[in-house]
Design brief:
Blueprint lengths: L5 H17 L6 H16 L7 E4 H15 L22 H13 L3 H6 L1 H17 L1 H4 L2 E2 L2 E2 L13 E4 L3 H7 L1 H18 L4 H4 L5 H6 L10 H7 L15 E5 L14 E5 H7 L6 H13 L1 H10 L6 H18 L2 E5 L2 E4 L4 H4 L5
Antiparallel strand pairs: 1-4, 2-3, 5-6, 7-8
Helix pairs in contact: 1-9, 2-3, 2-8, 2-9, 3-4, 3-6, 4-6
């Protein structure tokens, strides 16, 4: 199988744009489904151009995670908050399911995932909604079926198969697709009449729906201090009170909080790294840390009730470096020093390929 041609890649982006512009949206389910397909292409796909089988429960789990934050009450202007509507009619069923799970877990996503029966039932319920609604309606444009992502076949299968080249394009253009879909999602929620009294003239809806402050990152500080020996992850000098919990793969490149992706750094080092990927020397340090302290980190993350998945973190990291390599981009070494990406990154992340 070969990757799609440049012309096919441009066509894919045009098709996504057409879907967002011409498709019928009565809820935000289709936005969530597109994001889930893009994220799962990063986490489960590769760059061969091959088809990708995506289990529907995996899609449902992603969608639960997206809506987890959004099922919190939105702080109303001059009054008490309420959960934002995500449907043109009554509240979206998935929002209601997630709100019920909030009530049972105190609003903690990690606690919900640790409650295996609750989590399994929640994902199964959401999977049922996904199969009945957005999965087989996403690719309808007007009265036509525009099935460039996967075959438009209603059946009882537990998965969908992305067509050849689709996972490649989702991986290659993940940032563009995410930006396009999230923008449309925000506009849809903002334009719902039922939300106007809550939103007023505020401009903070995007931050509320998708903001980086998805968790209190301070919970990671004592865990990382221990495994890093009180040293800055990047410059290795001793940490003082000016320290920051840094996303090793920046949030701007892949917005998800996973325990193994965090490192502890001086605020200055974190500020200089910004939204860049770190050089191979830092990547090697990250891999060694996860190997050497993997058991300790796993136990500490569980005890702190934070979400962690080393395999997914490694696959996302592999994808991120693959994109920089494909673009001929630079990576951050120290201070303002950017360097070309060494091909050695592939051997370091061979298990994530």
């Amino acid at each position: 199988m070969t990757p799609p041609t440049p012309e096919q890649q441009v066509s894919f982006l045009g098709n996504i744009q057409r879907l967002m512009a011409e498709g019928s949206f009565v809820a935000t389910y289709k936005h969530a489904l597109l994001l889930a397909l893009a994220d799962l292409s990063v986490e489960r796909g590769d760059d061969t151009g091959a088809p990708l089988v995506v289990p529907i429960p995996a899609i449902a789990e992603k969608i639960v995670i997206y809506y987890w934050r959004q099922a919190l009450p939105y702080p109303a202007v001059g009054g008490s908050g309420a959960v934002l509507m995500q449907n043109t009619g009554r509240q979206a069923a998935i929002i209601r399911l997630v709100t019920e799970a909030h009530a049972l877990t105190g609003g903690s996503l990690a606690t919900a995932k640790a409650e295996r029966r609750l989590w399994t039932n929640l994902v199964a319920d959401v999977a049922g909604v996904v199969k009945r609604m957005p999965l087989w309606k996403l690719q309808r444009v007007g009265g036509d079926v525009f099935d460039f992502l996967y075959a438009h076949t209603i059946d009882s299968h537990a998965s969908v198969e992305l067509r050849p080249g689709v996972a490649y394009c989702f991986r290659r253009f993940h940032g563009l697709v995410e930006h396009l879909v999230r923008g449309a999602w925000v506009r849809f929620v903002r334009d719902l009449t039922a939300n106007r009294s809550l939103l007023g003239d505020t401009a903070s809806l995007d931050e509320f729906l998708f903001g980086a402050a998805r968790a209190d990152l301070s919970v990671y500080r004592p865990i990382l201090l221990e495994v890093q020996g009180h040293q800055c992850f990047y410059c290795t000098r001793r940490l003082d009170t000016t320290m920051a919990v840094d996303h090793f793969v920046p949030w701007s490149r892949y917005p998800v909080d996973l325990g193994h992706n965090f490192v502890l750094a001086h605020t200055a080092c974190n500020g200089r790294k910004k939204d860049r990927l770190a050089a191979v020397e830092h990547l090697e340090h990250w891999c060694v840390r996860n190997d050497r302290h993997g058991v300790t980190l796993d136990q500490a993350f569980r005890e702190a009730s934070v979400v962690a998945d080393r395999t997914t973190s490694e696959r996302v990291t592999h994808w991120a470096y693959e994109q920089v390599e494909a673009d001929g981009g630079l990576v951050w070494m120290s201070d303002d020093n950017l360097v070309p990406l060494s091909t050695r990154w592939r051997s370091l992340l061979a298990t994530g390929a």
